[in-house]
Amino acid sequence: MKRIFLLAIVSVCCLMASAQKTPVDYVNPLMGTDSKISLSNGNTYPAIAMPWGMNFWMPQTGKIGDGWAYTYASDKIRGFKQTHQPSPWINDYGQFSLMPVTGRLKIDQDSRASWFSHKAETAKPYYYSVYLSEYDVTTEIAPTERCAYFRFTFPQTDDAHIVVDAFDRGSYIKVIPEENRIVGYTTRNSGGVPRNFRNWFIIEFDKPFAASQVWAGYKKVEDYLELKSDHVGAVVTFSTERGEKVQAKVASSFISLEQAEQNLLEIGDRTFEQVKNEGRQAWNDVLGRIRVEDEDPDRLKTFYSCFYRSVLFPRKFYEVDKSGEIVHYSPYNGEVLPGYMFTDTGFWDTFRCLFPFVNLVYPSMGEKMQEGLLNTYLESGFFPEWASPGHRGCMVGNNSASVVADAFMKNITRADAEKMYEGLLKGANSVHPRIASTGRYGYQYYNELGYVPYDVKINENAARTLEYAYDDWCIYRMGQKLGRPQEELDLYAGRSQNYRNLFDPETKLMRGKNQDGTFQSPFNPFKWGDAFTEGNSWHYTWSVFHDVQGLIDLMGGKDEFVRQLDTVFALPPIFDDSYYGGVIHEIREMEIMNMGNYAHGNQPIQHMIYLYNYAGQPWKAQYWLREVMTRLYWPTPDGYCGDEDNGQTSAWYVFTALGFYPVCPGSNEYVLGAPYFKKAVISLENGRTIEISAPKNSDENRYIKSLTVNGKKYTKNYFSHFDLLKGGKYVFDMSSAPCKERGVSESDFPYSFSREK
């Protein structure tokens, strides 16, 4: 009896402990970090940061300039780096690092690197700690939006060093012993910035220096405490007792050293523990907007880890001056200007659901992002397509049209909408003079022929055509709401149908087309790249977000459309890599997932499963979405099935776990999947709540038998954005068998342009 009683007590205690967990406790920042060039399990790094923070921090395992700056398989840490990297492919800017060393001084990045173990590593969004075995030092980091608090626990030694590395390609350093400070700047970047780009920093220690020196090219420079060269840094030395903690407050600014000083006030007189705890609270405030319930802790970990990455990018690129005004350094013209600025996002990825997620759950942040986009247009003449921090040459499409239009259609935008619409027209009918991926490369052909030809030496031409057509529809939608002239609306509505020009009736797939109107030949629908972007025809054929009904009609009706959808999963993972000259990681990730030719690890096909809802077979969407969720996402270092890509792949998971997804941003609709949890509650900014209840939910009971909204039967395969904003109770009756009577009427289908009355 005693044993049973004790076991009962233990069980209750475990349950109580579990119940006390907050959303941020489930986050694993190491999810997706076990990646490499040949195979991405996320291509992430542990971002120690605040939501949308200007500066992130990370342990650096890779060499300076290596886009894979932290990889889970690494054994050594070279330093603790301030980072602004959105992805390994686009790489970093504004970076510098700190590294504790004991004993014989080691400066260069290879010799100073220390062995570490994940068993002695703690990674939380608001806190990082690791033991550096070669130096018997524990390093801890607690961030704010623009600062970080470091705490180094040293052994007993007269040679406790902190190596500050301002990185190469032009840097400056100054040691100020009487103030226990190091100041400087780094210019290292990966492109897209004006010549006057600087990231100024201040490092303030809480202990006087026993010695200090500067170095250049990893060699000590005697008799100087200030230095400017290609690659400089500093070393400060302390005498410490065992267990003594040396703390450092670090702030930076893209504007000036004086502004870095102002940013340092984010820490002010707070202790390390206060900064850590306030960071924890900030994360719980943001992640607490959505509460989910589940008996499986791994599902909670996966959800909140994805949620965490959904609110990291785009990052704030603005600062608050001493007068309390919002200001930013412009990465487009090099000036310091008033107003908001955000960066580090690629719209080819994030237009799909990351920005719609912000617009639904954090509309006040979305409003600031739109103001930042307007500032980008005013300062550069174009909206960004890939920003890091300025315009970067990456990917295709003109998907700023989607990001701008979606926010405007949802009444998020408070900026000058007419001026933003002007920017959309500019981007639709021109291309950036230096960055071909900004604006529309090939717009002359597109506007004249209705497509970008295959044979005019413009790469990925079919992908560009399909995305431009959707972008034209976005312009049409925004113009319609603004009351623009009918002639103009007709022009963009007509261009939105240009996807039809690439449809091959023989294969029922999208195909590149030559300038003379003939289709490319030979044609291999399994060929990656070439006419498409990081995918093949089987992936890109579905990129008709705004007019799925039109695509259904082209394919010969709903039955044929569904057959084509089914075929994606039924095909073996065949591919043709000849365009790349080898297997790129996106191909390999498709090949090994055992889901046929479905390539969830890359963005073009991520919405495809939801398209069953447009053809009256929503149960197939419910089946395959559950398969993707359970098979391809895990709260582990290998937990993604491809590039996480600035929050897009994570936001896909968050939306899908809630049971709906924005297939067509700009339509103000979310297409139904099925809820993943038995209960989820979304707390909206307007004070209302969306309660999603599915008490019978399980991996077996993955099908929607019936749905009520506020007690009334609901048969549609979509939710309206503005209905969701009213809040309400959404109750799903789940079943182990497909329900083939619900959501089958055309009146239940989501928006398609071809169905507009």
The first-to-last residue Cα distance is 73 Å
- Give the averaged pLDDT, no decimals: 96
The CATH superfamily of the largest domain is known as alpha-1,2-mannosidases domains
| Total strands | 36
Detail the poorly predicted runs: 1-18
Q: How many H/I helices?
A: 19
CATH class of the largest domain: Mainly Alpha
- Side by side, the strands of the main sheet go 6-7-8-9-18-13-12-11-16
Q: Strand pairing plus helix content: what structural class?
A: alpha+beta
Commentary on this structure:
The chain has 19 helices and 36 strands. 56% of the residues are buried.
Q: Topology, pairings included?
A:
Elements: H1 2-19, E1 56-60, E2 76-77, E3 79-83, E4 96-102, E5 114-115, E6 121-124, E7 127-132, E8 137-143, E9 147-154, E10 157-165, E11 171-176, E12 181-186, E13 199-205, E14 211-216, E15 219-221, E16 226-229, E17 232-240, E18 244-253, H2 257-263, H3 272-287, E19 290-293, H4 297-310, E20 315-316, E21 319-320, E22 326-329, E23 336-338, E24 342-343, E25 345-346, H5 347-350, H6 354-361, H7 363-380, E26 386-387, H8 400-409, H9 417-428, H10 443-449, H11 461-482, H12 486-495, E27 503-504, E28 509-510, H13 537-540, H14 548-555, H15 558-570, H16 585-591, H17 618-632, H18 648-658, E29 660-661, E30 669-672, E31 679-683, E32 689-693, E33 703-709, E34 712-713, E35 718-720, H19 721-724, E36 728-735
Helix pairs in contact: 4-18, 6-7, 8-9, 8-11, 9-11, 11-12
